Sequence to fold (580 residues):
Amino acid sequence: MPADKSEKTAAVKKTAAEPKTAPVKNVKAAAETKAAPAKKTKVPAEPKAEAEKKPKAVKAKKTETVKKAAAEAAPVGAVPVESAPVEAAPVEEPAETTPRRSVAFIGSECYPFVKTGGLGDVMYALPKALVKHNCDVKVILPRYRCIPWEYQQKMVYRGAFGMDLCADGRSYYVGIMEYVWDGVVYDFIDNEEFFNSGNPYTNLVDDIPKYCYFAKAALAALNYMDWIPDIIHCHDWQAALVPVYLRTLFDNTKLSRARTILTIHNLKFQGVYNIPTIKYWSGLPDYVFNKDALTVNWVDANMLKGGLTYSNAITTVSPTYAWEIQTPAYGENLDPHLRYHAGKLRGIVNGIDYDIWNPQTDKNVPHNYGADDVLEKKKANKRALQEELGLQVDDGKLVIGLISRLTDQKGLDLVNAIMPQIVDEYTQVVILGTGDPMYENSFRYYENAYRGSVCSCIMYDEARSHRIYAGADALLVPSRFEPCGLTQLNAMRYGTIPIVRETGGLKDTVEPYNMFTNTGNGFTFDRYDAGLLLDAINRAKTLYFENRWCWDEMVRRDMDKDVSWDSSAAQYKELYLQLT
Ligand code: ADP
Ligand code: GLC
Fold:
């Protein structure tokens, strides 16, 4: 899988897109489906729009009402899976009694179907947690070809229809394949033309049309299934056109009663391309291409910016990142826009799924453990890891892990700069990641230079990541910016001490160790500076080798820390209630 989202590669490819940019002819209104014709609406002015009277909560129909789709004729190109079993959805007892809300999650990846980073984890774990908070959740995803067959074969065909998309006047196939699991309904939008490449993200030339199609098809599918949620919760730029479509081309459909939330997982990726291309592919009316909505720099359109403008609420994945992105240093050129919309912006920190990340039951971990036996079992896991990776087997050494996409975001230039100072006869380093060849090669170099002490696994390997969380003593997350970060949360859950830069969610989730009060969860540094990272690592080494008792206490404290989704899911639920 690509380590980074496609937008990075795309800037240089703009010219290559030109052949696809046919002159905008007649922008047909939305679909032969129930989508309504284009209608002019004003860009909602915030925060005034927030003050508007909220429509009454719409009682959503239960998913069982969606029956008619199955009766439709088989769609072109659909895998014949009509007889495939749907996994039973156990009816979860609601954990609390706040009013029920129905929520459609729309995003581009979701574990275990397809994951390139933390967005995939969140798209899986948050809906599951919301079910316990009395929510009825449907997750809408693209049906990528790379989704493993074990899931593809369990999907059930729910129907298909044709949809207008862009100025070419064609009717585009939209199939709906459904899979029900853990109380959550997953609806996959099927179209081989857009989702047939091996990876979810390729390059912007292909990804812009792909996610214009996806955003519109997701709404059209909800209309088609007659499932009108209270909330449509969109994630990142790939789903950012959803609120724009909803308030324009879908404005006089039943769906328009829904309130929208756009969650920013990573502001670096915004879906920016020249205006004619996005206008052509989205089929959106001209008036949304103004500087308060989609337009940036007079020549480009920014899909994320449009979504921020048209959504009823914006969230991001930690309070600190919510603040940081309103500053020029972290705002990726959208900071003025975010400051303007600050009234509807808030940060809610991510959690992790306690079923998947549980050292007591984790099948990937050779020696399962809890807070009581972590000390001796971690040593056994460390020896197993050292053996697996060809490192010198010695449980007395400090093993420092790093599990990451290898991109500029993750502070890897700092690690590179000080690797010779980190590695010593008492310290080993284990890296697991893929991405930018520059980092892949530098870590390969260090593995060669320090054989037996450094291991660089240049790959994506979910199972191995679990064994590193379990077998390492500390985990590095020195990010340049980090909207939330999940690896430090996984680490704490496995009794592995995080060493992090104080930015974004890292700052909100890792309390710095205080040697005087013997409190805190990890080691931190503030400025983006290799010397300060080294200092933090040296403080960790000192505690590990000279005051093991305090280190061990921190290990147990971290394992006891609540990093689950419980409290964050409750905050999302509260937001859903406020909006409806
Ligand atoms: P981001 O979303 O920016 O990549 P996060 O910390 O939010 O960062 O999430 C990263 C997720 O991907 C974590 O679940 C982490 O364990 C996982 N991960 C990252 N790289 C790898 C890899 N090479 N192999 C297995 N899992 C990985
Ligand atoms: C993004 C961010 C990461 C965050 C994840 C899930 O990929 O880079 O910090 O944890 O999304 O929200």
Summary: The chain has two domains: 21-56+64-351+570-579, 374-562. The pocket of adenosine-5'-diphosphate (ligand 1) is lined by residues 117-119, 121, 403-405, 432-434, 460-462, 465, 484-487, 490 (CB under 6 Å). DSSP finds 20 helices and 18 strands in the chain.
